[in-house]
Design goal:
Elements: H1 11-15, H2 17-27, H3 32-36, E1 42-45, E2 60-75, E3 85-93, E4 98-104, H4 109-114, E5 120-130, E6 133-137, E7 140-143, H5 149-154, E8 159-162, H6 171-181, H7 194-199, H8 205-213, H9 218-249, H10 262-268, H11 276-289, E9 296-301, H12 307-320, E10 324-328, H13 332-346, E11 363-367, H14 373-385, E12 388-393, E13 407-413, H15 420-427, E14 435-440, H16 446-452, E15 457-461, E16 471-477, H17 482-497, E17 501-505, H18 516-519, H19 523-528, H20 535-544, E18 552-555, H21 561-573, E19 578-581, E20 594-599, H22 607-614, E21 624-630, H23 637-647, H24 651-661, H25 670-673, H26 688-704, H27 712-721, H28 729-732
Parallel strand pairs: 4-6, 9-14, 9-15, 10-12, 10-13, 11-12, 13-14, 16-21, 17-19, 17-20, 18-19, 20-21
Antiparallel strand pairs: 1-8, 2-3, 2-5, 3-4, 5-6, 5-7
């Protein structure tokens, strides 16, 4: 974070090229400073064992345990046809559970001599499942004898730091590397203003780095973590506060609805009343639109809470004030659907300049990449002349050719699909910066919103409109209980028999070219990790098997846009019984008659994605049913995730569970931008108070000194956090 000259020493010089290369490639660590900020994930005490019962599947783990049993077996194989193959099976225990280690071939000799029953050691490897039991194959290990000079020295501290490691670099090797560079911690420059640090009783940065890597007591670790959490929260909030401050200096045109204009004509023809929540959020938006600096607001709400209605009313208010509004949708299917529903809701108010158009009417156009040339030319003309007050489109709206008469409001649907570049490109199309409303149906806990979208004010719609039906969700363990899967297809037939429709969702399309590299996998690999189920295969199997006789169609992202549109229209009209699709249906697809959804390989989707998908059913008066099909074993983290989704329909609750289960680094979208995560000790959910307090402190610092001239340490930390590539991380969501 604070990569100051003393800490900018390349690791190559300090640790040698071979180790430095592994650290750079596998952990993204390049300098002494990077390594000092690679903190232990947890600590083991001598005599205290880790919980083998809670090991995560497919993750690289380090455990401290005792050998309970070791057996050498001989077997015949292609390489050793005369029964000369050797396999060493070692069982280790920690009191909470047991774990099997396996070694093969020539690799058995050393562990066979060293891993005798009663021996204690650190073991490091990747957790896999074999014969339905957890195991580590060929783990690296370090014996904990405490007799040789080096071992005594290295493990002298009462606490053994366990570092986030990789197969190429075990935790204890990282620990030794950290010991080598630890003296450099004395030169770390402190990013926190002295008054803030002293006022909160936090230790200095050099002291925190020493205590996190070489703690003598548990309270050393606490001191270090409290201090380092403040660093992360504060530097991040300063970055966001500066962005907010800069935006607030920009001029914008105030846009308010006019009395008896387009907005009130629209409200008069609504067949229902707005919910309390919709009215409250609309007021927040209208207040922002009336100011002379650009609105930056995040509107989040459950699937079906009526966000589109709120956004449309904001767009109409801007048209009333003489401006234009653009809505950016992530897919063509969604752009077409938004366009259809907006035109439907507005009726003759969307027929500006046409016969039969109402008095205040405007034109609503759609713009996507696959439109014909003539339709596209007309849409572009309507925008540049101002004839069209509202445009709904995909990324095609961002192209240079698209020009507006007077762009006043940009609405971005599903923020996590658009990076900051697209947001800025569209905002750049106004003569003055337009107002910005970002919508998301993935509910985000308040602290995450503050951490990720700290440059946006947040509005939340948490009431569902009347008439939405409950959705029952169940996990279907296909491997443990195949008859449950058979029953799932019967349920789909029953729903169709009752006049309803169903979705089947798969993670993959299935027309991908076979990758020769993948073809060389052994049969054993394949059994462990078969490719995700594909739409084309599943649709074919269902039509010939359990759903024979029903009208089954497919929908995926590589189809021609016209074909996609035709499939959606047939499904919406009730001419298709079962739609087998990829996640193209995740956002915004609205078919009230669809009541059942079966998600295949549900463990391959994230929690918020499953919640989004499930929101496609139960949109009418009949109750919805969502079946999550998985082959993952009962004890796996993936199964726990699915159980959580099945147990609640509250998106905010689910997003908290999701965050607690994932590494907090993913929160900032860092995983997508390829930059190292900027959160190492700050846990967004647990540390809500720190984040809120850091936001207050950061705003005060930025208002007093926007350029941070008096705080060189903070400036250095900011440059390391928000370098060019990483500028995007705040926007990824």
């Amino acid at each position: 974070m604070d990569l100051v000259p003393a800490l900018e020493e390349p690791l190559k010089k300090v640790l040698g090229p071979a180790t430095a290369k592994v650290m750079a490639e596998h952990l993204g660590l390049h300098t002494v400073g990077d390594l000092l900020h690679h903190y232990p994930r947890r600590y083991e005490e001598r005599g205290q064992l880790t919980h083998l019962a809670d090991l995560p599947m497919d993750e690289h783990v380090t455990v401290v345990a005792q050998v309970a049993d070791a057996r050498l077996h001989s077997f015949a194989s292609a390489k050793a046809p005369r029964g000369k193959g050797q396999r060493l099976e070692v069982t280790i225990t920690d009191g909470s559970g047991r774990l099997q280690l396996v070694f093969f071939g020539h690799g058995v000799h050393k562990p066979h001599k060293e891993l005798l029953p009663g021996t204690r050691a650190m073991f490091s490897g990747k957790v896999s499942v074999f014969n339905r039991r957890l195991q580590l194959a060929h783990p690296a290990y370090e014996l904990l004898r405490g007799d040789s000079e080096e071992t005594v020295e290295t493990w002298a501290g009462a606490l053994i730091p366990i570092y986030p490691a990789t197969a190429k670099l075990e935790s204890w090797k990282l620990g030794k590397a950290v010991q080598t560079v630890l003296p450099g911690a004395q030169e770390a420059v402190d990013p926190l203003p002295p008054a803030l640090r002293e006022g909160r009783g936090l230790v200095t940065l050099p002291e925190a780095l020493l205590k996190i890597h070489r703690p003598h007591t548990r309270s050393d670790i606490e001191d270090a973590r409290s201090r380092l959490k403040w660093d992360e929260a504060f530097v991040l909030q300063v970055a966001l506060a500066r962005r907010r401050h800069a935006d607030n200096q920009l001029p914008a045109v105030a846009r308010g609805p006019k009395p008896r204009g387009l907005l009130s004509a629209f409200d008069d023809r609504l067949p229902f009343t707005l919910t309390e929540g919709q009215r409250k959020v609309s007021k927040e938006i209208f207040d922002d639109l009336a100011t002379e600096h650009p609105m930056h607001r995040l509107l989040q709400g459950e699937v079906g809470s009526g966000k589109t209605m709120v956004a449309l009313r904001a767009m109409l208010a801007v048209v009333d004030a003489g401006g234009q509004a653009a809505m950016l949708a992530p897919t063509e299917v969604l752009a077409q659907q938004h366009h259809r529903s907006v035109v439907e809701m507005m009726g003759e108010l969307a027929e500006g300049g046409m016969l039969g158009g109402a008095e205040h009417a405007t034109k609503v156009v759609v713009l996507t990449g696959s439109m014909g040339a003539a339709a596209r030319r007309q849409a572009l003309l309507d925008l540049v002349t101002g004839e069209a007050g509202i445009v709904i489109g995909t990324h095609a709206l961002i192209e240079d050719k698209v020009q507006f008469h007077d762009l006043g409001l940009v609405v971005v649907d599903e923020q996590h699909r658009f990076g900051v570049e697209q947001r800025d490109a569209l905002r750049g199309k106004g003569t003055q910066p337009p107002h910005l409303l970002v919508m998301t149906a993935t509910p985000i806990p308040r602290t995450v919103a503050m951490t990720v979208f700290g440059d946006l004010e947040t509005s939340v719609l948490d009431q569902l409109p009347a008439g939405r039906s409950p959705i029952a969700s169940h996990v279907v363990p296909a491997a443990d209980k195949p008859h449950f899967l058979a029953r799932a297809w019967e349920r789909v037939r029953e729903e169709v028999g009752n006049g309803h429709q169903a979705y089947v969702v798969c993670p993959r399309i299935g027309d991908e070219e076979d990758d020769p590299k993948k073809a060389r996998k052994t049969a054993e690999d394949e059994a462990e990790k078969r490719p995700p189920l594909a739409v084309l295969d599943v649709a074919d199997q269902l039509a010939k098997g359990p759903l024979q006789g029903l009208r089954v169609e497919v929908l995926h992202g590589r189809m021609h846009p016209d074909d996609k549109d035709a499939v959606m229209r047939r499904f919406a009209a009730g001419d298709t019984d079962v739609l087998v699709a990829t996640t193209v249906i995740e956002v915004g697809v609205n078919v009230p008659n669809a009541t059942a959804m079966v998600i295949m390989d549900a463990d391959r989707f994230g929690v918020s994605q499953l919640h989004q998908l499930r929101g496609r059913v139960g949109r009418g008066s009949a109750p919805g049913l969502c079946l999550l099909v998985t082959e993952m074993p009962e004890a796996s983290a993936a199964r726990q995730r699915l159980n959580a989704v099945a147990s609640t329909l509250d998106g905010f609750e689910l997003s908290r569970i999701d965050l607690e289960q994932r590494r907090e680094g993913d929160v900032l979208g860092q995983a997508q931008s390829g930059a190292r995560t900027s959160l190492r000790v700050l846990a967004v959910i647990e540390d809500e108070e720190i984040i809120a307090e850091a936001r207050e402190e950061a705003m005060a610092v930025v208002v007093a000194d926007p350029e941070l001239t008096g705080l060189p340490g903070l400036r250095t930390a900011l440059e390391a956090l928000v370098d060019e590539e990483r500028e995007q991380y705040m926007e990824k969501g």
